[in-house]
Structure formats: structure tokens, C-alpha cells
Design a protein that fits this description.
Layout (H helix, E strand, L loop, with lengths): L1 E8 L3 H13 L5 E4 L16 E2 L10 H20 L3 E2 L3 E5 L5 H12 L6 E4 H7 L7 E5 L3 E3 L1 H14 L3 E3 L2 E9 L2 E8 L6 E12 L5 H5 L14 E10 L8 E4 L11 E4 L5 E4 L3 E3 L11 H9 L10 E11 L11 E3 L1 H4 L4 E5 L5 H19 L2
Parallel strand pairs: 1-2, 1-12, 2-9, 5-14, 12-20
Antiparallel strand pairs: 3-8, 4-8, 5-7, 6-7, 10-11, 11-12, 13-16, 13-17, 13-18, 15-16, 19-20
Helix pairs in contact: 1-5, 1-9, 2-9
């Protein structure tokens, strides 16, 4: 039976960043990355805004805050080193009041998280920089950016494969059996012909399956139910804008505490194509169909800060689904990174609720798990 030092379940941006960080620290380790889809990053990792977040919103002391701020620096450095396309475009968080205490609170929160570069902009400053925007005041975040997420994931995979990573797409983990200091895993391989079964052993098993982390956790033999947090699916639609992009920066409204996201904001890809989204809607099952009749609701929200928007130029783009661990009306959940100490299972690491800012934090998440493994030894 084949044996690996580490098996990673899930080849989204987190699994890819973890593979990269592990093999950078343990170049002689044998690592297998299992993915049930035909390629990497087919779900949450490729259905997002592609924003490199600064670390403004998250509660001080949370994993989201710590790993976002650390991950932002690591991500920019990685992109520079390996020529992954990005733009440090900057972001405006706007208010329709010239004395908004929410902006002050956000700035204070950001400083607690180690973000000290925010600038307060008055209406005159906003009008000079973004004449199409209607706002009385804003916070400007110069360290916010956008990145080519597909190229990022391609680079992470390529670099890891150069160091010996075995990437196994079209492979579904069907059961995980802990024993002693390792695991025996049963998988089913779908290669276009008759499915094949394949068993192997691994010293470490890391569950970072994103939307399916809870489902994968349930295949681990005798794992206590208390080790599997409840999953909530939150869908967000995006609309492209066929008109001219008038914006130099990303434009975000103030976050609504009653909503599950940051509000319908403007973002753009590296070519400058403008899009708006996402909204936030809790759903019962993964569903990427875009609700095109949301156009009017999107237009109404966007016109609060972009009055010249032409609603008929909004066209459905794509939808994404976030794996949350908090439901409607709950306080936002933090990232969950649970090691052997939390489960009582030697060699088991599980990740739950890795939503935004997961892309920004991916390399720091990978680094933190690598450090955990170093402490226990590979």
C-alpha cells in the first residue's frame, strides 16, 4: 500500500497554498493533494471578487484579522517573485455622511489589526479621485488590490509539483480510518472509464475541502460530531457592467451589519472590466445559477453611490457560494483551524468556514498549518 507523509483533501486556493508551504519547509516530504473535481479551484476559489484585502473589518485577535494581514504581505511578495498578475489598486469605503462614526470605528478596528495606512478622505478629495461617485466621506485603503486568482493557483500548483507534489484530480475520498499515528484512506478515482478504488496511507490528513469540509469530516471514522461545526451556504451573485468603467479604485459601501457580506461593491478585473457584487443570500444547496431578475435590486443599491449607473447595462456574470459556520442573524464566524489537540486524533487537521478573506490569507493559512506540523514533527 502506498504511503505518504501528508494527504491534503481539497485543491482550492487553500489546499494549493498549503501544499506549497509544506514542501517549501519539508522538501523531502511526500505530499498528495486529492481533488474530486477535474481540476483545481473549481468552486469558491474561482467564484469571488479576486480582491487582496487589507484586514480592515475583522475582529481584532481573530484568525481572519491575523491571517489576512500576514497573508496580504505574503501574497504580494509571492506575486512579485513569481510574476503573478496583480494591481495594488486601492479601495474606497464610502459614506453618505461627512461625520460618520462608522468610518471612525472601522479605522480604529483596522489599526487594532495592524493596518495603519488608511486615509480619511473628504467629499472634495473623493470628487477629484472618483468624480462618478456620490459620497460625503470615505476611508481609502492603499494596500487593497486585485489578483489573477487562476494564475495564482496555477503558480502554486506548478511550484509544488516541481518539489514532488502528487496532484490527484477526479478522486473522491470515501472514508478515512485513523490508526495509531496515521490514516488509511479509501478513494474512488473517476477517469472517464469505470471508477477505480484506491487505498493508501498517510501520517497526516488535512481536510480543507471548502464547501465540502463537513461532508469530508463525516467520513472520518469515530470522529466526534462535536468536531464538525454546522455548515451554512451563502450565495452571492455578480453582474458585469457593459458601460464604461469610470472608477480608478474599488468602491465599497459601508458594510450593513444586518447583511452577511460587505454589500454590493464595485470591483474590476486586471483588464479594467467593471463588475458589481456580491449580494448575500443563504441557500440550502450549492447552486451557481444567477438570478437575473435581481438587476433592479442591484441597480438600486449601486445608484446610492454611482448615480449615473445605467441599469440595462448590468448583465449576469457568475455566482459564488461561501462556506460559512454562522447562519442568518448570527455574528460572523471566524476561520476554524482545528489540529490534533482539538479532535484528539493524531495527525488530523481540519479547516472550516474558510470564506473571505481566504484568498488573501491563503499563504498565511498554509504557513500556520506548516508550523503546527513542525511543532509535532513530520
Amino acid at each position: 500500500m502506498d504511503r505518504f507523509d501528508v494527504c491534503i483533501g481539497g485543491a482550492g486556493v487553500i489546499g494549493l497554498a498549503l501544499s506549497y508551504q509544506l514542501l517549501k519547509s519539508f522538501p523531502k516530504a511526500s505530499v498528495v493533494l486529492i481533488e474530486q473535481e477535474s481540476s483545481f479551484g473549481q468552486h469558491t476559489s474561482s467564484r469571488l471578487s479576486e480582491v487582496i484585502h487589507a484586514g480592515i473589518y475583522y475582529p481584532p485577535g481573530s484568525l481572519k484579522a491575523k491571517l489576512c494581514v500576514e497573508g496580504k504581505a505574503s501574497l504580494y511578495e509571492f506575486c512579485d517573485t513569481y510574476r503573478v498578475p496583480y494591481r495594488q489598486i486601492g479601495k474606497l469605503i464610502i459614506s453618505q455622511s461627512d461625520s460618520d462614526t462608522t468610518l471612525t470605528s472601522l479605522e480604529r478596528n483596522a489599526k487594532s489589526n495592524g493596518v495603519h495606512d488608511l486615509e480619511y478622505w473628504t467629499e472634495d478629495r473623493i470628487r477629484i479621485a472618483e468624480p462618478a461617485i456620490r459620497a460625503k466621506s470615505a476611508l481609502f485603503s492603499p494596500s487593497t488590490g486585485i489578483v489573477d486568482s487562476h494564475q495564482l493557483m496555477t503558480s502554486l500548483l506548478g511550484l509544488s509539483e516541481q518539489k514532488g507534489l502528487l496532484f490527484a484530480p477526479r478522486t473522491k475520498i470515501t472514508s478515512v480510518h485513523p490508526y495509531g499515528q496515521g490514516f488509511e484512506l479509501d478513494t474512488r478515482i473517476y477517469d472517464g472509464r469505470k471508477p477505480k478504488t484506491y487505498k493508501f496511507k498517510a501520517k497526516w490528513f488535512i481536510n480543507c475541502a471548502g464547501l465540502w469540509s463537513q461532508q469530508l469530516a463525516e467520513t472520518i471514522e469515530n470522529l466526534p460530531a462535536s468536531c464538525i461545526p454546522r455548515r451554512f451556504l451563502c450565495k452571492g451573485d455578480y453582474f458585469d457592467y457593459q458601460g464604461t468603467n469610470p472608477f480608478t479604485h474599488l468602491i465599497y459601501p459601508l458594510p450593513d451589519p444586518k447583511l452577511a457580506g460587505l454589500g454590493i461593491h464595485s470591483t474590476q478585473d486586471l483588464s479594467g472590466r467593471l463588475r458589481f457584487g456580491p449580494d448575500a443570500e443563504y441557500i440550502d444547496a450549492v447552486d451557481y445559477r444567477i438570478t437575473s431578475n435581481k438587476r433592479n435590486a442591484f441597480a438600486q443599491a449601486i445608484r446610492r453611490y454611482f448615480p449615473a449607473l445605467e441599469a440595462d447595462k448590468l448583465t449576469p456574470a457568475y455566482a459564488g457560494v461561501r462556506p460559512k459556520i454562522s447562519g442568518p442573524g448570527d455574528q460572523p464566524g471566524d476561520f476554524v483551524i482545528a489540529g490534533p489537540k482539538e479532535s484528539g486524533v493524531p495527525g488530523l487537521v481540519q479547516l472550516f468556514g474558510i470564506e473571505s478573506p481566504g484568498l488573501t490569507a491563503s499563504l498565511s493559512i498554509g504557513s500556520s498549518i506548516t508550523q503546527l506540523i513542525k511543532q509535532i514533527s513530520l
